[in-house]
Structures are given as structure tokens and as C-alpha cells.
Amino acid sequence: MTTPTRPGQAGDAGSDTTDDDQHWFDLLAGRPSAGADATTRAEAARLRQALLQHRAAAPAGDPAAPDDRIARLLGRARAEGVLAAPSATAPPLSSPQHRRRQAWAGALAAGVAGLVITLLLRSPDDQGAPKGMPEAVLRGAPVQQLQAADPQQRRQQLLQALRAAGLDAHSFDRLGRAGLDIALPVPLPAAQARALADLGIADPHGPSLQIELLPAAPPLAPVAPASAIQTR
Amino acid sequence: MCPALQGHAPAGTLAARSRARRMTLTAESFTQACRDGGRQIEAWLRIVDREHGARFYREAATALRCWHAAEDVVQDAMVKVWQRCASFRGPGDPLAWIHSVVRHTLLDALRQRRPEQPLEGDDGALSAPVQAAVLQLSQQQVARPDQQLAEQQVEAVFQRGFDRFAQAHPEHAMVLRWVVEDGLDNSAVEQLLGRSPGATREFISQCRKKARPFLADWHALVGAGSGSAGTRQA
Fold it and tell me: So what's the architecture of B14-112 in CATH?
């Protein structure tokens, strides 16, 4: 049974109002919500109508010119390692005709050379294997991953430790993986930074962090001595 | 302060621009670009900026009240998209995913702009000095409900209350706007916040709870007008 609070009342919206909040949220989004209290319906309807009438406006002005902003965007992507340096992606070229001739000649030469090298080096093991990319594509991980023999148990330990350190942490399960969702103050106080470090978690220098707990890999089989490896 | 953007010479090769013109923004081409990197990503960056940049920049500028900061946030998001592209789950719409990354980054930016002095205590109630200030402002600037039935005045009270709410809790106010304007459901908010379902439900409850004191005067006005039992927050 939910205990709806009247709009404008700053009473404590504890766990008993969670269902009521969900009704309010659905109604606010314009979805029907069977079972919602009449007061909640009225509150959500009024707020929805008011927000639709008072859509926020952008400040005066416009975005930067497309060429300018794309130049800054590409520069930033290169600085972050998403794109390779300009010399690798955009070799200096003179005229369009010269550029086209160079491109065709280059493509032909590269194709012939690639074919020869491929035929010379091809081995049965290579078939279908992806080759290295000519340009480095660096991508950061959106989450930090930790390995544990028992991910569920380790998650529970981490959850307790994080909360004990005063951090807002919640558990989640996604695609079969146990995880933790942590909201962090910015800047992170030293004591909480130490607590993270003690748990083997790097400071993300941002307001949120997700941890995924992966099952620890089984111990590796003994490696055969080099002399025992057969080459084809 | 919102400094003016610096001009910059056009960048990129003719080939890259030509590639950007030919490419279509599908899940397949996104996945391919993520796998191949380099020029494929450059083409995606160009075409997304050309075709969708304006609305992304405008949305961010609306929230941040600054075009310079908006560009910073949107471009930060674009870089994140490609740093995290492997986590995109096809065959969904990559543009919707990119938009959610932009909004997530925008919320991060809003969160980092939080006021230096907390406006409320651990229990979510306004701290004593803030409560006193709100009360004083209400008495000075807001007439009593019986004096203020005109529609324009009611709108002004709402606008003022919501603006204050957005100043104190920019992240919550922004999400509320998106919920109303785009009809976001729990899973969309969950993705937007990068939070678990439980944490998202708590966030939703907090949105309602945090908005209440700031909209109390408005609730009292419109509640009184419609015969509902609104109470004025002291």
C-alpha cells in the first residue's frame, strides 16, 4: 500500500512511496498508469502540461560554423587516440588531378604488393584471421573490470566496503555479469580515493564509475618448452 | 563566463569528405567503422556532425546556457562514442545510442556544476539557511494565491520555481524535461544515467522529492485553482 504525498508537501518520500513515484513518472512521460492515486495523477498532469508549455530555449546565438567545429572535433579525436595523427590519415597533396593519379598509382602498387606478400606468407593457420589495422584505434573501457573467484561474493564485499566509505554504490547484473554502479563526488575526497585504491579500483576522475566482476581465469596449463613447438 | 569560440581552418581531405557524403548511418556501417577505425570513424564523425550536430549542440547549449560549453560536451561525447563503440549493441539505431551518450555526458557536465554549498541535508530536506532564504524570497516575490490567479502570474511562478530547481539540481531538472518531452521510460533513463534499475528508481523518486520545495508555491496556486488539496510549503 502506498502513501501518496500531496504535491508541495516536503514529506519524506521513503520506500513506501516508490510505487507512487513510479506512477508519477509514467504519467509525467505521458504513459497511462493504472492504479495511480488521483492526487498523483493531478500532480503529474499539471507538471507535464507546464513543462510542455515552458520548453527551455537555447541561449542567443548558434553553434560554431560546421567547418570550424569539425576541425576541432577531429583534432580532439586525434588527441584522444580515436583517430591517427593527420599525417597518417591525410597526406599532403597538391592538385586534385595529381591527387587522383597518386591515389590510383598508390592503390595499384599497394594492391600488387599486398597480393604478392599475402601469397608468399599465407599459411593454413592464417585463413580468416583478421589482420592488424594500419591505424591505431584506441578505445578506453567504459567500466573497470575486476576478476574474482566468486564474482557475486566479491561484489557484495565491495558494495559493503564502498558504502562504508560513504560512497553511493548499487549493484547490477548485465549480460550475465555482476557489477557495481558508483556515484562519486567531484573532486573525490582523499579518504574516498584511498578507499577505492585499497579495493583495487582506480579513481576515474569523474562523477560515475561502473565495476564489472569477471570470474577469475583458470590457471594456465604448463607451457611447452620452445624446442617442443613444431613449425610447419 | 562563456568565452567565444575560436575560429579554425577547415580540416580534412577531399577523400574524407567524399567518404562522409557516401556513407549511410546504419548499425552495419557503425559496427564496421568501429572494427576498422581510422577513416571510417572520421567519416562517421563528419556525417553525424553535419546531419545531427545542430540538434545535439542546441540541446547541450539549452542545458548549459553556453554554446562554447555545449560544443565541449558534445565533442567529448563524440570521442567517447568511438572509445566505447565496441559496447554498442546492434542491430539498434546507432544514432539513438550516440544521442544517449551525448545526454549522459551532458548530465555528467551538469553534475560537475553542482553548487559548492549543498542546498539540502542528507535527509533531502532544505538546509536551514536555504529554507529561510526560500521563505524570504517567497514572501518578497510571490504574492499569496488569492492575489495571483491570473494565468500569466501562475506561469511566472512555475518558471521561477523550475529555474531555481534547475539551478540547484541541474541533472534532475534536465532528466525531468527529457522525460516529459521524449516520453523516456525506466530503461531509457537507466541507460542515460548509466545506473542500475534500482539506482534509477531511486533517482526518479529523488527527482520528484527535490522538485517539490521549489514548486511548492506553484502547486499551491494550481492546486487551489483546480480544487486539489495543495499545501503551501513554508
Answer: Orthogonal Bundle (1.10)
